[in-house]
């Protein structure tokens, strides 16, 4: 497949002859890809050449992990479109593995195209050659290699189809450099239709009937709506279901924002208490994983109604009593429609009112922390300042452990697609990569990253990318000079004298961003935060606000890791 001198002559003479990179770019354009995220590499340069012809933006980052994270965010923010990262061979692809794994656990439909040494030198030890496909296969929905230039569009279609079908996830396509560089006829090459939204699977009406029967016999049901609701584009159906039934709704993962925080059925502070009392648990697109103690958080005698996009996810860790398999938005609409058809008027407003009173009581319990004037800043006051600053068009990105958990208690998600965090893999470093995709997609909206100081260190240098592409992203760091989420359990379990590997330096991250060419702010008092946010967004530059927050070493209340 390596182009010989003779084939290059044909390539130059032939009117319709193009290299494989142009076929790849044309296929990506037809798949609706508006931007590729990449880090320059010799194995993949033909794709750049093709992308220029097709008007596809090329956003080059400083680490391949960031490229894949950005592709992940692109998919989350553009329903019905697929994010794409293009990585060079060897360390380029190994650097991207964490991003692929994060997309795998978050069910993000992305396409990662990887370079490879020349096919005609396969297994001879060419520069950066390794078996990428075998490495990626366990953390992807589809992984393969294309060895024929004219078939590149066909392989891209297969990869996209696998990524978006059923429960979505990442696909990986390897294309060796000589395959990308070899000539093919653009006019005769086969370009299959690329569908980025698969046919919607409709749950069995018998299962819908059974779900309605279980629900109408309930006294204290509740719902946990998660990532599957987002990928089903089910937010409108979720709102209709909640309004009809008055079932209390909690949101998990990318479910945040699928029901607006102002909705009367939205709850976020009493989930643990509510689960201990519930008799029917509606699990909509969220797994029974560590966040629900693998199902043990739900009473043993409670019935489970599970809504999932694929049958393989039904009954994970605990059997469900009713299972609805298919598009989750359609499933919720079916339940609502059947209740209307049968004139079922039962709702759970009284149960919801009981939980609302408890939520308000909890909120009152930490009001003093929300208004605390102490310095260094109370983490909840830090969150309150963010809450009072944002509007419904602000895109928030959580990148950290403790600080993001604290902010999540206070800062509302005002609209769909206004909040992103890593997802269940808990990958730190997503902040600026996610923000790059967000600001590129929505240049007129404010994008705010909420950082822990530990998380900033992973991909903070992507501020360089934001500066080069003139993307005025603002970050705010809750800086306690520690890996806070690890500090407290370690001290609580082993004692302060055994504390190790959890302390960080009192670093001026704002100065780092200033040195790169951005805008920096430093705050030690809570009243300084709001003006710093205003100045940062007004600067028109990528900006970072470094806020000194209180360092706590209290005993742990449980572990995330069991």
Percent range of helical residues: 40-55%
Number of helices: 23
C-alpha end-to-end distance: 51 Å
Number of strand elements: 19
> How is the biggest beta sheet arranged?
6 strands, parallel
Strand % is 15-25%
**Class derived from helix and strand content:** alpha/beta
- Spans where pLDDT lies below 50 across 5 or more residues: 1-13, 555-562
Q: What is the topology, as strand order, of the major beta sheet?
A: 3-2-4-5-7-6
Oligomeric state as shown: single chain
Any idea what the radius of gyration is? 25 Å
User: Mean pLDDT, nearest integer?
Assistant: 92
Shape label: globular
Question: If you had to describe this structure to a student in words, what would you say it looks like?
Answer:
The strands form 4 sheets. This protein has a 6-stranded parallel beta sheet, sandwiched between helices. The protein has a 6-stranded parallel beta sheet with strand order 15-14-16-17-19-18, sandwiched between helices. Strands 10-9-11-12-13 form a 5-stranded parallel beta sheet, with helices on both faces. It contains 23 helices and 19 strands. It is an alpha/beta fold and 562 residues long. It starts with a helix and ends in a 14-residue tail after the last strand.
């Amino acid at each position: 497949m390596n182009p010989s001198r003779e084939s290059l002559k044909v390539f130059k003479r032939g009117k319709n002859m193009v290299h494989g990179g142009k076929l790849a770019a044309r296929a990506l354009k037809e798949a609706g890809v508006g931007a590729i995220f990449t880090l320059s590499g010799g194995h993949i340069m033909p794709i750049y050449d093709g992308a220029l012809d097709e008007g596809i933006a090329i956003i080059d980052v400083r680490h391949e992990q960031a490229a894949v994270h950005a592709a992940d965010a692109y998919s989350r923010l553009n329903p019905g479109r697929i994010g794409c990262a293009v990585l060079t061979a060897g360390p380029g692809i190994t650097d991207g593995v964490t991003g692929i794994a994060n997309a795998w656990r978050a069910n993000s439909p992305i396409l990662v195209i990887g370079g490879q040494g020349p096919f005609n030198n396969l297994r001879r030890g060419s520069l950066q050659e390794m078996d990428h496909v075998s490495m990626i296969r366990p953390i992807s929905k589809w992984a393969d290699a294309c060895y024929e230039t004219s078939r590149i569009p066909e392989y891209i279609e297969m990869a996209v189809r696998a990524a978006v079908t059923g429960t979505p996830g990442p696909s990986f396509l390897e294309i060796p450099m000589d395959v990308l560089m070899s000539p093919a006829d653009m006019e005769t090459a086969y370009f299959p239709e690329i569908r980025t939204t698969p046919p919607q699977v409709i749950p069995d009406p018998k299962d819908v009937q059974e779900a309605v029967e279980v629900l109408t016999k309930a006294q204290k049901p509740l719902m946990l709506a998660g990532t599957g609701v987002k990928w089903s584009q089910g937010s409108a159906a979720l709102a209709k279901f909640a309004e009809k039934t008055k079932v209390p709704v909690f949101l998990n993962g990318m479910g945040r924002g699928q029901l607006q925080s102002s909705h009367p059925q939205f709850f976020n502070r009493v989930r643990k208490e509510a689960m201990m009392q519930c008799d029917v648990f509606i699990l909509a697109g969220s797994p029974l994983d560590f966040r629900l103690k693998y199902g043990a958080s739900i009473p043993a005698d409670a019935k489970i109604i599970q809504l999932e996009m694929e049958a393989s996810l039904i009954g994970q860790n605990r059997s469900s009593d009713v299972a609805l398999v298919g598009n989750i938005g359609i499933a919720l609409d079916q339940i609502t429609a059947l209740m209307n058809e049968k004139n079922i008027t039962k709702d759970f407003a009284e149960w919801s009112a009981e939980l609302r009173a408890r939520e308000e009581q909890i909120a009152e319990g930490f009001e003093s922390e929300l208004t605390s004037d102490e310095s260094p800043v109370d983490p909840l006051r830090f969150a309150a300042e963010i809450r009072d600053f944002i509007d419904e068009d602000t895109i928030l990105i959580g990148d950290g452990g403790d600080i993001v958990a604290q902010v999540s208690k206070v800062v509302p998600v005002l609209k769909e697609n206004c909040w992103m965090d890593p997802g269940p893999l808990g990958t730190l470093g997503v902040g600026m990569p996610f923000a790059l995709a967000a600001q590129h997609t929505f240049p007129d909206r404010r994008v705010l990253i909420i950082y822990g100081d530990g998380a900033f260190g992973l991909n903070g240098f992507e501020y360089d990318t934001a500066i080069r592409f003139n993307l005025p992203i603002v970050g705010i760091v809750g800086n306690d000079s520690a890996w806070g989420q690890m500090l407290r359990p370690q001290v609580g379990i082993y004692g302060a004298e055994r504390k190790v590997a959890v302390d960080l330096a009192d670093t001026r991250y704002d100065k780092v961003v200033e040195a790169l060419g951005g805008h920096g702010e430093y705050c030690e008092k809570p009243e300084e935060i709001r003006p710093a946010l205003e100045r940062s967004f007004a600067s028109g530059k990528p900006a970072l606000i470094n806020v000194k927050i209180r360092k706590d070493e209290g005993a742990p209340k449980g572990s995330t890791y069991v």
